[in-house]
Amino acid sequence: MSTYDAIYTVVRQIPYGQVATYGQVAELANLYGQARLVGYALFRVQSTDIPWHRVINAKGEISYSSFRDGGDDLQRSLLEEEGIRFSSTGRIDLNEHRWRPDPCAVLTSLQAEDSCSTQTP
DNA sequence: AGACTGACGGTCT
DNA sequence: GAGACCGCCAGTC
Predict the structure, then answer these.
(1) How many Å does it take to go from CA A85 to C1' B10?
(2) Beta pairing partners, A56
(3) How many CB atoms lie within 10 A of CB A68?
(4) Using the CA of A22, which nucleotide's C1' is the nearest one?
(5) Mind listing the pLDDT tens digit of every residue in chain A (121 residues)?
(6) Which of A31, A77, A87, A112 has the most CB within a 10 Å radius?
(7) A88 contact to strand C (CB, 7 A limit)
(8) Secondary structure percentages of chain A, helix, strand, coil, to 5
């Protein structure tokens, strides 16, 4: 599994109505501190198979990409459709909408060590 | 092989 | 809160 595959897998775990930051995704993909890679990975793929719009930066803001038609506007619309509210400054309240992933579930999806499920009750 | 290019995060003014 | 710096990796030419 390549580095990017792990990123895509994690992003796909983000549930409807919730968002995750690049740093968060990076950490879950075993790439703590390499939030950039997450952004680069999504930039290259921009696949419809991935809920890329649920990934935002640490400030709760939407990252804008010039090549996309109304990139930030589209992403914002998609998020609002999911019930995510934006503050007056155009930022998302992370305390309210941040995804709280289940470490074991993520690891399983990554086909990583099942160290956390060996004791499954 | 070397240089360039990209959706960022954390820390320090 | 906002802006400036630095670190960091994969893909393409």
Answers:
(1) 26
(2) A21
(3) 13
(4) B8
(5) 778 888 999 999 999 999 999 999 999 998 888 999 998 888 887 777 889 899 999 999 888 776 666 566 778 888 999 999 998 888 999 999 999 998 888 888 887 666 666 655 6
(6) A31
(7) no
(8) 45, 5, 50
Residue A15, both tokens: 């549930």
Beta strands in A30-92 (DSSP E): 55-56
The residue type of A90 is G
Residue A12 CA, distance from chain mean position: 8
β-pair type (A20-21, A55-56): parallel
* Residue of A24, A25, A14 whose CA lies nearest to A79: A14
Asked whether A101 and A28 are in contact (CB, 8 A), the reply is yes
